[in-house]
Amino acid sequence: MKIGIITRVPGYTVRRLREEARKRGHEVVTIKYPECYVEIEQDRPTVFYRGNELNDFDAVVPRILPGMTAYGAAIIRQFEMMGVYTPVRSIAITRSRDKLRSLQLLSKAQVGIPKTIFSRETDAVDDLVDRVGTPSIIKLTSSTQGNGVVLAETKKAAKSVIQAFYVNDTSFLIQEFVKESAGIDIRVFVVGSQVVASMQRQSLDDDFRSNIHQGGTGKVIKLTEDERKTALRAAKAMGLSICGVDLMRSDRGPLVLEVNSAPGLEGIEAVTGRNVAGKIVEYIERNAKRRVKKDKVGA
Ligand SMILES: Nc1ncnc2c1ncn2[C@@H]1O[C@H](COP(=O)(O)OP(=O)(O)O)[C@@H](O)[C@H]1O
Ligand SMILES: [Mg+2]
To answer: 245 CA to middle of ligand 2, Å?
Structure first.
């Protein structure tokens, strides 16, 4: 097969995917999506890269990172229009980047999530905070790597953060603080309908955020059956056949925080010793044949 890896900054993950795909005899090309453009004409969708038409891929692997999500998703959508197989569809990429939209889909699919409030500017800030209790978590709907997540210890602090966000017309969520697992979360790597690896991430200091980018470290963890099923249900609800489901252990069972549509391989492969890249390539081999001809319209 000829496989295109669609990325912005090729790093460890792209290297590993390339390596595993080549091992299995595939031709692999890395495409930087910011340098792509699309041509739209009646019945003839095309993607160009550095002046060349990309018209002979059997499959593309999207690695659309935050920052240029809409552009990246549009490039992937164009490949979909051309009938090229992608294990991660553009609509699912866009969905996963919006924490509100993700939580709405997850809640509808009966996946456990922290109690969450979304509101426009209102005088009822006190009531909003009361509904989730304190300490409370306030996070930007577009947060990544822990950079838009605030822990407000008191109601006063929560109110002032919320009011500051209102001033800027910033979209944010107010969320119940899951005390039981402060500073710890679990990354579950899903490929197809299987969990292929999982690790626990813990912050090194007293930060409540366990993101590796905030200095957290990972270790191997054994999932409970409930956690495994929850992760698979979350992946399905988001329409993501390759993803990283982040969940927290709570007194009332696993609670999903988010589902990442471009999960990195470096941490998970190093911590678990699993060949996750190999699993992804195998999945693409199995599924690329069933090419998607028509784009389905979805939320
Ligand atoms: N409701 C919550 N209760 C406790 N800790 C939380 C909660 N939400 C987020 N965290 C912590 O903050 C980290 C970042 O939050 P997350 O929602 O994943 O945002 P981001 O997309 O920026 O990583 C999580 O990995 C977790 O450790
Ligand atoms: Mg996160």
So the answer is: 9
